[in-house]
Design brief:
Distance between the termini: 7 Å
Strand content: under 5%
Mean pLDDT: 79
Order of helices and strands: HHHHHH
Largest sheet: none
Radius of gyration: 17 Å
Number of helices: 6
Structural class: mainly alpha
Number of domains: 1
Helix content: over 70%
């Protein structure tokens, strides 16, 4: 249980860093996924798929909270579910962070002045470190 505890703690720390920097994912991916699936199934199945996609979207939007909840679920020996939730929170958070930096570059807000550059780097670096820490910890988590 020793190494597992360390990686669970690393996920929790990564989730806290993601929360501090407001690193969250976007629900747009899941809306697009629903649009693709709903076109090929009947209305009854589409309603079920819609509910499942909404739940996944809300988990992804919660970012660091999803990572922490996933780590706690792993600690309660629900390994697959916990790792899945950690992956959603961290993966969608990474996409959100990349979009944050790209829009900052194209809007010019990152280049406007030195203080803005330092603020953007400091704001984004907590999230980046949190996401990287979470991804590494998730990969290292092994079932006892």
């Amino acid at each position: 249980m020793g190494k597992k505890r360390i990686w669970i703690l690393a996920c929790i720390v990564g989730g806290i860093l993601m929360i501090i920097s407001s690193t969250v994912g976007s629900i747009t991916f899941f809306e697009t996924l629903y649009g693709i699936i709903a076109a090929d199934v009947g209305p009854d199945v589409a309603a079920i798929v819609s509910l499942a996609v909404q739940i996944l979207g809300y988990i992804a939007m919660s970012g660091g909270i999803a990572v922490i909840v996933g780590a706690l679920i792993v600690a309660m020996d629900h390994f697959r579910l916990g790792k899945f939730i950690i992956g959603l929170g961290a993966g969608m958070g990474l996409i959100g962070l990349i979009i944050f930096f790209i829009t900052g570059i194209f809007e010019g807000s990152i280049y406007s002045d030195m203080q803005a550059i330092i603020t953007q780097i400091a704001h984004g670096s907590y999230g980046f470190v949190g996401i990287i820490l979470t991804i590494i910890a998730r990969r290292k988590l092994k079932k006892d």
